[in-house]
Design brief:
Helix content is 7%, strand content 43%. The chain has 115 residues and is mainly beta. It has a single domain, classed as SH3 type barrels (Roll), CATH 2.30.30.790. The relative contact order is 0.24.
Length: 115
């Protein structure tokens, strides 16, 4: 087990972005199309974080033309260029899967005012 941790140490980002469940974030993802590369933005609410170390992932959900779209991003992946927090969310749960069943304003997370 220690050997796996030593191998994973090199892959863990030192300046991992600081965000929490319920936050609305903009994730910059590196997309490769053939030989070209571009950065694509994905903005939505963080509904889950799971795992630890190099295997940590987070799930971002947004509505696109009335259809719910969720993407799971590895936190320490080199393809995840940047994660910017747009607004902080006030939640009392560690997983916000209940937002999948909600529509419209009911699917919103209240904003938390942090000092």
């Amino acid at each position: 087990m220690d050997a796996l941790k030593k191998i994973a140490e090199g892959s863990v980002k030192e300046n991992a972005p600081e965000f929490h469940i319920g936050d609305t974030v903009k994730v910059s993802v590196n997309i490769r199309e053939g030989e070209r590369e571009r950065i694509q933005m994905f903005e939505g609410t963080v509904i889950a974080r799971r795992g630890s170390g190099v295997a940590e992932t987070f799930t971002v959900r947004r509505l696109s033309y009335g259809v719910g779209v969720e993407r799971v991003f590895p936190l320490h992946s080199p393809n995840v260029v940047d994660v910017k927090v747009v607004r902080r969310g006030k939640v009392r749960r560690s997983k916000l899967y209940y937002l999948r069943d909600r529509v419209g304003k009911a699917a919103k997370v209240k904003e938390e005012i942090r000092k």
